[in-house]
Amino acid sequence: MEKSIIKTEIPGPKSKIALQKQAQWESDAISYPKRLPIALDRACGSYVQDVDGNVFIDFLLGAGSLPLGHSHPELVDEVCKQAKKLSLGLDFPTPIKETFTEAHFSMLPEKLRDSYKLHFCGPTGADAVEAAIKLAKVSTGHQEIISFRGGYHGCTTGALAVTGNRQMKKDFLGLMPGVHFFPFGSESHSQTSWVMNSQQLDAGMFLESALRDANSGLGNIAAIILELVQGEGGLYVAEKSFVSKIYQLSREFNIPLIIDEIQTGCGRTGTWYAFEQYDIEPDIFVTSKGTSGIGLPSSLMFYKKTYKNWLSGNHIGTFRGNQLAFSAGVKAIQIIKQENVLDNVKMMSSIIIDKLNALKIKFPFLGEIRGKGLMLGVEILDPEREEADEKGAKEIQKLALQRGLITELGGRNDTVLRLLPPLNIDIKTINEAFQILEEVFICYNNMIHKEE
Protein backbone atom coordinates (compact mmCIF):
# COMPACT_ATOMS: atom_id res chain seq x y z
CA MET A 1 0.00 0.00 0.00
CA GLU A 2 1.72 3.13 -1.24
CA LYS A 3 -1.19 5.31 -2.36
CA SER A 4 -4.81 5.92 -1.44
CA ILE A 5 -7.28 4.27 -3.83
CA ILE A 6 -11.06 4.53 -3.61
CA LYS A 7 -12.83 1.76 -5.56
CA THR A 8 -16.37 1.92 -4.17
CA GLU A 9 -18.75 4.35 -2.57
CA ILE A 10 -18.09 4.85 1.14
CA PRO A 11 -19.13 2.74 2.92
CA GLY A 12 -18.67 -0.04 0.38
CA PRO A 13 -20.98 -3.09 0.24
CA LYS A 14 -18.84 -5.30 2.48
CA SER A 15 -18.33 -2.49 4.98
CA LYS A 16 -22.09 -1.91 5.10
CA ILE A 17 -22.67 -5.55 6.05
CA ALA A 18 -19.92 -5.45 8.68
CA LEU A 19 -21.30 -2.22 10.16
CA GLN A 20 -24.80 -3.72 10.30
CA LYS A 21 -23.48 -6.76 12.17
CA GLN A 22 -21.54 -4.53 14.54
CA ALA A 23 -24.67 -2.52 15.31
CA GLN A 24 -26.52 -5.78 15.96
CA TRP A 25 -23.90 -7.33 18.25
CA GLU A 26 -21.97 -4.53 19.92
CA SER A 27 -22.99 -1.88 22.42
CA ASP A 28 -24.24 1.52 21.36
CA ALA A 29 -21.08 3.05 22.85
CA ILE A 30 -19.09 2.48 19.66
CA SER A 31 -17.90 5.83 18.30
CA TYR A 32 -15.43 5.89 15.40
CA PRO A 33 -17.51 3.86 12.88
CA LYS A 34 -20.40 6.28 13.38
CA ARG A 35 -18.28 9.09 11.94
CA LEU A 36 -15.99 6.98 9.76
CA PRO A 37 -18.25 4.21 8.36
CA ILE A 38 -15.73 1.64 7.14
CA ALA A 39 -14.69 -1.86 8.23
CA LEU A 40 -10.92 -2.31 8.37
CA ASP A 41 -9.07 -5.25 6.88
CA ARG A 42 -5.33 -4.57 6.88
CA ALA A 43 -2.83 -1.74 7.17
CA CYS A 44 0.80 -0.85 6.59
CA GLY A 45 2.66 2.35 7.43
CA SER A 46 0.47 5.39 6.81
CA TYR A 47 -2.17 3.43 4.89
CA VAL A 48 -5.16 1.32 5.89
CA GLN A 49 -7.36 -0.84 3.65
CA ASP A 50 -11.02 -1.58 4.25
CA VAL A 51 -12.80 -4.85 3.49
CA ASP A 52 -13.92 -3.48 0.12
CA GLY A 53 -10.35 -2.86 -1.04
CA ASN A 54 -10.41 0.91 -0.58
CA VAL A 55 -7.07 2.28 0.63
CA PHE A 56 -6.92 5.37 2.85
CA ILE A 57 -4.17 7.56 4.24
CA ASP A 58 -4.66 7.19 7.98
CA PHE A 59 -4.27 10.42 9.96
CA LEU A 60 -6.24 8.97 12.89
CA LEU A 61 -3.70 6.18 13.39
CA GLY A 62 -5.29 4.29 16.25
CA ALA A 63 -6.05 7.60 18.01
CA GLY A 64 -2.34 8.37 17.92
CA SER A 65 -1.17 5.02 19.29
CA LEU A 66 0.92 3.94 16.28
CA PRO A 67 3.94 6.26 16.27
CA LEU A 68 5.74 4.31 13.53
CA GLY A 69 2.60 3.63 11.52
CA HIS A 70 0.68 0.40 11.06
CA SER A 71 2.38 -3.01 11.24
CA HIS A 72 5.98 -1.82 11.15
CA PRO A 73 7.80 -4.99 9.96
CA GLU A 74 10.58 -4.85 12.57
CA LEU A 75 8.07 -4.45 15.38
CA VAL A 76 5.92 -7.26 14.01
CA ASP A 77 8.98 -9.54 13.96
CA GLU A 78 9.76 -8.73 17.60
CA VAL A 79 6.19 -9.43 18.68
CA CYS A 80 6.17 -12.78 16.87
CA LYS A 81 9.46 -13.82 18.47
CA GLN A 82 8.31 -12.78 21.95
CA ALA A 83 4.95 -14.57 21.53
CA LYS A 84 6.83 -17.85 21.25
CA LYS A 85 8.58 -17.18 24.60
CA LEU A 86 6.17 -15.44 26.99
CA SER A 87 3.14 -13.26 26.35
CA LEU A 88 1.94 -12.23 29.83
CA GLY A 89 4.12 -11.90 32.90
CA LEU A 90 1.89 -10.10 35.45
CA ASP A 91 4.40 -8.04 37.45
CA PHE A 92 7.18 -10.63 37.59
CA PRO A 93 10.57 -9.47 36.34
CA THR A 94 11.39 -10.74 32.86
CA PRO A 95 14.30 -10.05 30.49
CA ILE A 96 12.19 -8.10 28.00
CA LYS A 97 10.47 -6.09 30.75
CA GLU A 98 13.88 -5.12 32.11
CA THR A 99 15.06 -4.04 28.65
CA PHE A 100 11.81 -2.11 28.09
CA THR A 101 12.23 -0.31 31.42
CA GLU A 102 15.83 0.62 30.62
CA ALA A 103 14.80 1.84 27.17
CA HIS A 104 12.10 4.14 28.54
CA PHE A 105 14.35 5.55 31.24
CA SER A 106 16.98 6.21 28.56
CA MET A 107 14.49 8.52 26.81
CA LEU A 108 14.15 10.79 29.85
CA PRO A 109 16.35 13.88 30.05
CA GLU A 110 19.62 12.69 31.54
CA LYS A 111 19.34 14.84 34.67
CA LEU A 112 15.97 13.24 35.52
CA ARG A 113 16.77 9.55 35.01
CA ASP A 114 17.65 8.93 38.65
CA SER A 115 14.71 10.95 39.98
CA TYR A 116 11.82 8.64 39.09
CA LYS A 117 10.41 5.21 39.69
CA LEU A 118 8.15 3.45 37.21
CA HIS A 119 4.78 1.82 37.84
CA PHE A 120 3.28 -0.47 35.21
CA CYS A 121 -0.46 0.18 34.99
CA GLY A 122 -3.36 -1.56 33.29
CA PRO A 123 -3.80 -1.49 29.54
CA THR A 124 -5.29 2.00 29.11
CA GLY A 125 -4.14 5.55 29.68
CA ALA A 126 -7.15 6.11 31.93
CA ASP A 127 -5.83 3.44 34.29
CA ALA A 128 -2.53 5.31 34.56
CA VAL A 129 -4.46 8.49 35.39
CA GLU A 130 -6.34 6.58 38.11
CA ALA A 131 -3.02 5.36 39.50
CA ALA A 132 -1.60 8.88 39.50
CA ILE A 133 -4.60 10.29 41.37
CA LYS A 134 -4.44 7.47 43.92
CA LEU A 135 -0.71 7.95 44.46
CA ALA A 136 -1.15 11.68 44.98
CA LYS A 137 -3.96 11.13 47.48
CA VAL A 138 -2.19 8.45 49.47
CA SER A 139 1.05 10.46 49.52
CA THR A 140 -0.48 13.76 50.64
CA GLY A 141 -3.39 12.53 52.72
CA HIS A 142 -5.52 15.05 50.81
CA GLN A 143 -8.55 14.42 48.63
CA GLU A 144 -9.24 17.30 46.25
CA ILE A 145 -7.91 17.67 42.70
CA ILE A 146 -7.35 20.71 40.50
CA SER A 147 -7.95 20.19 36.79
CA PHE A 148 -8.44 22.49 33.80
CA ARG A 149 -11.22 23.38 31.41
CA GLY A 150 -11.03 21.46 28.16
CA GLY A 151 -8.89 18.69 29.61
CA TYR A 152 -9.51 15.05 28.77
CA HIS A 153 -8.06 12.26 30.91
CA GLY A 154 -10.16 9.15 30.19
CA CYS A 155 -13.52 7.50 30.81
CA THR A 156 -13.01 5.65 34.10
CA THR A 157 -14.61 7.11 37.21
CA GLY A 158 -11.67 9.15 38.47
CA ALA A 159 -10.31 10.08 35.04
CA LEU A 160 -13.75 11.19 33.86
CA ALA A 161 -14.20 13.27 37.00
CA VAL A 162 -11.09 15.33 36.14
CA THR A 163 -12.18 15.64 32.48
CA GLY A 164 -13.76 18.94 31.53
CA ASN A 165 -16.36 17.74 29.03
CA ARG A 166 -19.76 17.97 30.76
CA GLN A 167 -21.57 16.11 27.98
CA MET A 168 -19.43 13.02 28.57
CA LYS A 169 -20.30 12.78 32.24
CA LYS A 170 -23.81 14.21 32.49
CA ASP A 171 -25.45 10.77 32.79
CA PHE A 172 -23.06 9.37 35.39
CA LEU A 173 -23.77 9.98 39.05
CA GLY A 174 -21.24 9.40 41.78
CA LEU A 175 -18.07 10.41 39.96
CA MET A 176 -15.07 11.20 42.17
CA PRO A 177 -15.93 14.32 44.21
CA GLY A 178 -13.68 17.23 45.08
CA VAL A 179 -12.54 18.25 41.58
CA HIS A 180 -12.07 21.96 40.84
CA PHE A 181 -11.73 23.27 37.26
CA PHE A 182 -9.69 26.33 36.36
CA PRO A 183 -9.04 28.17 33.07
CA PHE A 184 -6.40 26.64 30.81
CA GLY A 185 -3.74 29.11 29.72
CA SER A 186 -3.20 28.60 25.99
CA GLU A 187 -1.11 30.06 23.18
CA SER A 188 -4.39 30.40 21.26
CA HIS A 189 -5.53 33.80 20.04
CA SER A 190 -8.72 32.59 18.39
CA GLN A 191 -11.88 34.60 18.95
CA THR A 192 -13.74 31.28 19.15
CA SER A 193 -11.50 30.06 21.96
CA TRP A 194 -12.91 29.25 25.38
CA VAL A 195 -9.45 29.12 26.93
CA MET A 196 -7.47 31.93 28.46
CA ASN A 197 -4.61 33.49 26.51
CA SER A 198 -2.11 36.27 26.83
CA GLN A 199 -4.53 38.77 25.25
CA GLN A 200 -7.02 38.10 28.01
CA LEU A 201 -6.50 37.74 31.76
CA ASP A 202 -3.67 35.60 33.09
CA ALA A 203 -5.09 32.08 33.58
CA GLY A 204 -2.47 31.24 36.19
CA MET A 205 -3.69 34.20 38.23
CA PHE A 206 -7.06 32.50 38.79
CA LEU A 207 -5.45 29.47 40.38
CA GLU A 208 -3.03 31.57 42.41
CA SER A 209 -5.89 33.70 43.72
CA ALA A 210 -7.88 30.62 44.74
CA LEU A 211 -4.93 28.98 46.47
CA ARG A 212 -4.18 32.13 48.47
CA ASP A 213 -7.80 32.98 49.31
CA ALA A 214 -9.04 31.35 52.52
CA ASN A 215 -12.60 31.81 51.24
CA SER A 216 -12.08 30.32 47.75
CA GLY A 217 -13.81 27.07 48.66
CA LEU A 218 -10.77 24.93 47.94
CA GLY A 219 -10.02 22.19 50.43
CA ASN A 220 -6.77 20.31 50.87
CA ILE A 221 -5.41 19.72 47.37
CA ALA A 222 -3.94 16.30 46.58
CA ALA A 223 -2.79 17.11 43.04
CA ILE A 224 -2.92 19.36 40.01
CA ILE A 225 -3.43 17.43 36.75
CA LEU A 226 -2.58 19.08 33.44
CA GLU A 227 -2.25 18.29 29.73
CA LEU A 228 0.35 20.39 27.92
CA VAL A 229 -1.51 19.94 24.64
CA GLN A 230 -5.23 19.35 24.97
CA GLY A 231 -5.74 16.69 22.32
CA GLU A 232 -9.44 15.94 22.63
CA GLY A 233 -10.02 19.48 23.85
CA GLY A 234 -9.11 21.04 20.49
CA LEU A 235 -5.29 20.97 20.31
CA TYR A 236 -4.81 23.97 22.55
CA VAL A 237 -1.14 24.26 23.51
CA ALA A 238 -0.33 25.40 27.04
CA GLU A 239 1.43 28.74 27.15
CA LYS A 240 4.89 28.54 28.72
CA SER A 241 4.24 31.37 31.18
CA PHE A 242 1.05 29.61 32.31
CA VAL A 243 2.84 26.29 32.86
CA SER A 244 5.65 28.08 34.67
CA LYS A 245 3.12 29.69 37.02
CA ILE A 246 1.34 26.37 37.67
CA TYR A 247 4.68 24.69 38.38
CA GLN A 248 5.78 27.49 40.71
CA LEU A 249 2.48 27.31 42.62
CA SER A 250 2.73 23.53 42.93
CA ARG A 251 6.19 23.97 44.51
CA GLU A 252 5.09 26.76 46.83
CA PHE A 253 1.99 24.96 48.09
CA ASN A 254 3.59 21.50 48.06
CA ILE A 255 1.00 20.07 45.66
CA PRO A 256 1.99 17.14 43.43
CA LEU A 257 1.89 18.10 39.75
CA ILE A 258 0.63 15.34 37.44
CA ILE A 259 1.37 15.80 33.74
CA ASP A 260 -0.85 13.75 31.44
CA GLU A 261 1.34 12.62 28.52
CA ILE A 262 -1.02 9.86 27.38
CA GLN A 263 -1.19 11.31 23.87
CA THR A 264 1.72 13.77 23.84
CA GLY A 265 4.27 11.24 25.10
CA CYS A 266 6.63 9.02 23.10
CA GLY A 267 7.67 11.71 20.64
CA ARG A 268 4.33 13.02 19.37
CA THR A 269 5.23 16.70 20.03
CA GLY A 270 8.85 16.50 18.83
CA THR A 271 10.46 15.68 22.18
CA TRP A 272 9.98 12.34 23.90
CA TYR A 273 7.78 14.06 26.47
CA ALA A 274 6.10 17.42 25.99
CA PHE A 275 7.14 18.56 29.49
CA GLU A 276 10.75 18.71 28.26
CA GLN A 277 9.77 21.86 26.34
CA TYR A 278 8.55 23.64 29.49
CA ASP A 279 11.52 23.41 31.88
CA ILE A 280 9.54 21.59 34.58
CA GLU A 281 9.97 18.36 36.53
CA PRO A 282 6.57 16.76 37.09
CA ASP A 283 6.07 14.92 40.36
CA ILE A 284 4.10 12.32 38.43
CA PHE A 285 3.59 11.82 34.71
CA VAL A 286 1.68 9.19 32.79
CA THR A 287 1.94 7.89 29.24
CA SER A 288 0.30 5.16 27.21
CA LYS A 289 -0.61 5.51 23.54
CA GLY A 290 2.84 5.28 21.99
CA THR A 291 4.64 3.12 24.54
CA SER A 292 4.60 -0.11 22.52
CA GLY A 293 5.02 1.58 19.15
CA ILE A 294 2.57 -0.82 17.53
CA GLY A 295 -0.72 -0.25 19.35
CA LEU A 296 -0.37 -3.09 21.85
CA PRO A 297 -1.79 -1.89 25.17
CA SER A 298 0.60 -0.61 27.81
CA SER A 299 0.44 2.33 30.19
CA LEU A 300 3.08 3.72 32.51
CA MET A 301 3.25 6.03 35.50
CA PHE A 302 6.55 7.66 36.44
CA TYR A 303 6.74 9.24 39.87
CA LYS A 304 9.39 10.97 41.96
CA LYS A 305 11.26 8.65 44.32
CA THR A 306 10.32 10.94 47.20
CA TYR A 307 6.81 9.43 47.11
CA LYS A 308 7.33 6.46 49.40
CA ASN A 309 3.71 5.71 50.37
CA TRP A 310 3.01 3.54 47.31
CA LEU A 311 2.69 0.09 48.82
CA SER A 312 2.31 -3.43 47.45
CA GLY A 313 -1.13 -3.91 45.92
CA ASN A 314 -2.05 -0.20 45.91
CA HIS A 315 -2.72 -0.38 42.18
CA ILE A 316 -2.66 -3.64 40.25
CA GLY A 317 -4.00 -5.10 37.01
CA THR A 318 -3.74 -8.43 35.22
CA PHE A 319 -2.51 -7.06 31.90
CA ARG A 320 0.22 -4.73 33.20
CA GLY A 321 2.80 -7.35 32.21
CA ASN A 322 2.16 -7.35 28.44
CA GLN A 323 5.41 -8.87 27.19
CA LEU A 324 4.40 -8.41 23.54
CA ALA A 325 4.00 -4.66 24.09
CA PHE A 326 7.38 -4.56 25.83
CA SER A 327 9.15 -6.33 22.96
CA ALA A 328 7.68 -3.99 20.36
CA GLY A 329 8.35 -0.95 22.55
CA VAL A 330 12.05 -1.75 22.86
CA LYS A 331 12.43 -2.03 19.09
CA ALA A 332 10.37 1.14 18.53
CA ILE A 333 12.72 3.16 20.74
CA GLN A 334 15.74 1.72 18.92
CA ILE A 335 14.26 2.76 15.56
CA ILE A 336 13.30 6.22 16.83
CA LYS A 337 16.88 6.79 18.00
CA GLN A 338 18.63 5.27 14.98
CA GLU A 339 16.45 6.97 12.37
CA ASN A 340 16.31 10.37 14.14
CA VAL A 341 12.53 10.18 14.14
CA LEU A 342 12.12 13.08 16.58
CA ASP A 343 13.93 15.34 14.10
CA ASN A 344 11.51 14.14 11.44
CA VAL A 345 8.59 15.10 13.69
CA LYS A 346 9.83 18.68 13.90
CA MET A 347 10.58 18.92 10.17
CA MET A 348 7.27 17.42 9.02
CA SER A 349 5.36 19.48 11.58
CA SER A 350 6.77 22.66 10.06
CA ILE A 351 5.84 21.48 6.54
CA ILE A 352 2.27 20.61 7.56
CA ILE A 353 1.79 23.95 9.33
CA ASP A 354 3.06 25.80 6.24
CA LYS A 355 0.64 23.84 4.04
CA LEU A 356 -2.27 24.54 6.40
CA ASN A 357 -1.41 28.25 6.42
CA ALA A 358 -1.34 28.28 2.61
CA LEU A 359 -4.78 26.65 2.50
CA LYS A 360 -6.08 29.03 5.15
CA ILE A 361 -5.38 31.96 2.81
CA LYS A 362 -7.57 30.34 0.14
CA PHE A 363 -10.45 29.14 2.28
CA PRO A 364 -12.14 31.50 4.78
CA PHE A 365 -13.75 28.62 6.68
CA LEU A 366 -10.34 27.53 7.96
CA GLY A 367 -9.68 29.06 11.35
CA GLU A 368 -6.86 28.85 13.84
CA ILE A 369 -4.15 26.23 13.27
CA ARG A 370 -3.20 24.62 16.56
CA GLY A 371 -1.05 21.89 18.05
CA LYS A 372 2.55 20.86 18.44
CA GLY A 373 4.77 18.40 16.59
CA LEU A 374 2.63 15.88 14.70
CA MET A 375 -0.41 16.53 16.86
CA LEU A 376 -2.00 19.23 14.73
CA GLY A 377 -5.36 20.55 13.65
CA VAL A 378 -7.32 23.43 12.19
CA GLU A 379 -10.60 24.83 13.44
CA ILE A 380 -13.49 24.87 10.97
CA LEU A 381 -15.49 28.10 10.95
CA ASP A 382 -18.72 29.43 9.60
CA PRO A 383 -17.09 32.12 7.42
CA GLU A 384 -20.01 34.55 7.73
CA ARG A 385 -20.42 34.43 11.49
CA GLU A 386 -16.75 33.58 12.22
CA GLU A 387 -17.93 30.99 14.72
CA ALA A 388 -16.79 27.40 15.09
CA ASP A 389 -18.87 25.24 12.75
CA GLU A 390 -19.70 21.73 13.98
CA LYS A 391 -21.75 20.84 10.92
CA GLY A 392 -19.02 22.03 8.57
CA ALA A 393 -16.31 20.05 10.37
CA LYS A 394 -18.34 16.86 10.10
CA GLU A 395 -18.98 17.44 6.39
CA ILE A 396 -15.26 18.00 5.75
CA GLN A 397 -14.36 14.82 7.63
CA LYS A 398 -16.93 12.93 5.52
CA LEU A 399 -15.64 14.39 2.24
CA ALA A 400 -12.05 13.53 3.19
CA LEU A 401 -12.99 9.92 3.91
CA GLN A 402 -14.75 9.63 0.55
CA ARG A 403 -11.54 10.77 -1.15
CA GLY A 404 -9.19 8.51 0.79
CA LEU A 405 -8.08 10.40 3.92
CA ILE A 406 -9.04 9.40 7.47
CA THR A 407 -9.07 12.30 9.93
CA GLU A 408 -10.37 12.87 13.45
CA LEU A 409 -12.43 15.68 14.94
CA GLY A 410 -11.90 17.22 18.35
CA GLY A 411 -12.45 20.31 20.44
CA ARG A 412 -15.64 21.75 21.82
CA ASN A 413 -18.48 20.40 19.68
CA ASP A 414 -15.96 18.60 17.44
CA THR A 415 -15.09 21.62 15.31
CA VAL A 416 -11.35 20.99 14.94
CA LEU A 417 -10.08 18.81 12.08
CA ARG A 418 -7.28 16.80 13.69
CA LEU A 419 -4.22 15.31 11.97
CA LEU A 420 -2.24 12.55 13.72
CA PRO A 421 0.17 11.11 11.13
CA PRO A 422 2.96 8.64 11.95
CA LEU A 423 6.07 10.20 13.45
CA ASN A 424 8.16 8.75 10.61
CA ILE A 425 5.88 10.02 7.83
CA ASP A 426 7.59 11.12 4.62
CA ILE A 427 7.01 14.17 2.44
CA LYS A 428 5.45 12.08 -0.34
CA THR A 429 2.60 10.95 1.91
CA ILE A 430 2.11 14.45 3.29
CA ASN A 431 1.86 15.84 -0.23
CA GLU A 432 -0.68 13.17 -1.16
CA ALA A 433 -2.74 13.89 1.97
CA PHE A 434 -2.76 17.62 1.30
CA GLN A 435 -3.73 17.12 -2.32
CA ILE A 436 -6.79 15.31 -0.98
CA LEU A 437 -7.43 18.01 1.62
CA GLU A 438 -7.29 20.77 -0.98
CA GLU A 439 -9.77 18.87 -3.16
CA VAL A 440 -12.01 18.47 -0.11
CA PHE A 441 -11.83 22.17 0.75
CA ILE A 442 -12.62 23.15 -2.86
CA CYS A 443 -15.62 20.83 -2.84
CA TYR A 444 -16.82 22.13 0.54
CA ASN A 445 -16.31 25.74 -0.55
CA ASN A 446 -18.47 25.10 -3.61
CA MET A 447 -21.13 23.48 -1.42
CA ILE A 448 -21.47 26.40 0.97
CA HIS A 449 -21.53 28.96 -1.86
CA LYS A 450 -24.16 26.93 -3.69
CA GLU A 451 -26.32 27.00 -0.55
CA GLU A 452 -26.05 30.79 -0.53
Automatic annotation (TrEMBL):
One Pfam family hit: Aminotran_3
InterPro entries: Aminotrans_3, Aminotrans_3_PPA_site, Dat, PyrdxlP-dep_Trfase, PyrdxlP-dep_Trfase_major, PyrdxlP-dep_Trfase_small
Cofactor(s) essential for the protein: pyridoxal 5'-phosphate
Gene3D superfamilies: Aspartate Aminotransferase, domain 1, Type I PLP-dependent aspartate aminotransferase-like (Major domain)
Top-level division of the source organism's lineage: Bacteria
GO MF assignments: pyridoxal phosphate binding; transaminase activity
Transmembrane annotation, as ranges: none
Keyword line: Aminotransferase, Pyridoxal phosphate, Transferase
Matches recorded under PANTHER family: DIAMINOBUTYRATE--2-OXOGLUTARATE AMINOTRANSFERASE
Family recorded in the similarity comment: Belongs to the class-III pyridoxal-phosphate-dependent aminotransferase family.
UniProt-recorded name of the protein: Diaminobutyrate--2-oxoglutarate aminotransferase
Taxonomic path: Bacteria, Pseudomonadati, Pseudomonadota, Gammaproteobacteria, Enterobacterales
